Amino acid sequence: MEATTQFTALILILLVFILNALVRRHDRAQMRRIRAFAIVPQITGESIEANRPLHVSLGGATIGGDTTLLALVGKEFIYYLTREVVIGDASPIFTVSDTTALPLTMDTLRRAYNAEGRSDAFLALSGRWYPSGNRLAFAAALMTMQADDQVSGNVLTGRYGAELALVLNASNRHKKGSIAVSDRLDGQAVAYALATEALIGEEIFAAPGYLSDDVSLTNRNIVLDRVRWLLILVLIGIPILRPLLPTILETIGSIFGIGG
What we know:
- The structure is a single chain.
- Helix content is about 55%, strand content about 10%.
- The chain has helices spanning about 1-25, 35-40, 40-50, 70-85, 100-115, 135-150, 165-175, 185-195, 205-210, 215-240, 245-255; strands at about 55-60, 95, 125-130, 155-160, 175-180, 195-200.
- The radius of gyration is 22 Å and the shape is elongated.
- The longest helix is centred in the C-terminal third of the chain and has 27 residues, at about 215-240.
- It has a six-stranded parallel beta sheet, sandwiched between helices.
- It has eleven helices and six strands.
């Protein structure tokens, strides 16, 4: 089994290098369509045109716990998203349910303003912390924002449970566009059912490639997509080829002088 694992890993590494080299030969290859990213121009454009703040939230994602990676990935998504919004007059509103995530969101907004050459327009008060002792209380706070702050739309990325239904229902009643994703199964199910568009699974990791003009990020997404299909083929092919693996390994060993 160890030899099989080494052989499979070697083949995958070689294929990744080959795919990366092939993809880099093109200036801008075509990525697969993800509908949530396709409506980003619409959501950001509505904020600018209506001069209303876009609401962005990390939910229960925080720094220093089991959601650290989720918070960091969500931060990159928010960064590229808000870069499209900060060229307008209405500053985005960031909400979190844990105080450790508040500096992260504020730094993300500051970076977005700096990247667009509008550092003087940055407002630290755009970040809001709602206590996380009760998830329903956090959801209630986001519900009231829809009318009180007259937000143009909602981008909800992070950790949410079934209470996400309350937020998205309020968003829909006020006819606000929304993008949602959660690392919890119940929250993800709600996002898929009620959000304008939902991100599924690892799609949140692909956000920089879809929302930026960096060709290297685009190529990275394409390579990862193709490697995913290769992994699927490998998982299907190994049981089929397992009886032949000893012969294949022996042949490779004789060619390269390995074993004996």
